[in-house]
């Protein structure tokens, strides 16, 4: 029996999460995943803050990049980042719960475009991220079709 698109996304995410030490080290949680979508969140802790006493942009980028990764890898194909950019809009502050919501804009050939919106617990927009992906060889799990 063929797996549904939702089951494929979940199994792909489970396989990735098992090996994703960077997102775990960040303190992120994988809150939701579906075909072409993913939501991750993290709480800004002291070790995430910079010399301005706000969340370091690198951690916000990492959270967004991880959401992007789970979204573009949701089809049981190995996909990597080709190019990413971020625009910081407001600071994340100590204690804020930041949520990164990734959604697929387009998939074509071996490439994809994904947007990630990072916001805090009040709904304040913190950053907008755009990721371009590239499919490479391999799958996350054996689906019996290979």
From TrEMBL:
Coiled coil: none annotated. InterPro entries: Acyl-CoA_thioesterase_PaaI (IPR052723), HotDog_dom_sf (IPR029069), PaaD (IPR011973), PAAI_dom (IPR003736), Thioestr_dom (IPR006683). It holds the Pfam family 4HBT. Signal peptide: none annotated. Keywords: Hydrolase. This is Hydroxyphenylacetyl-CoA thioesterase PaaI. PANTHER family: ACYL-COENZYME A THIOESTERASE PAAI. Belongs to the thioesterase PaaI family. It comes from the Bacteria. Residues 54-126 form the Thioesterase domain. Gene3D superfamilies: Hotdog Thioesterase. GO terms for molecular function: acyl-CoA hydrolase activity.
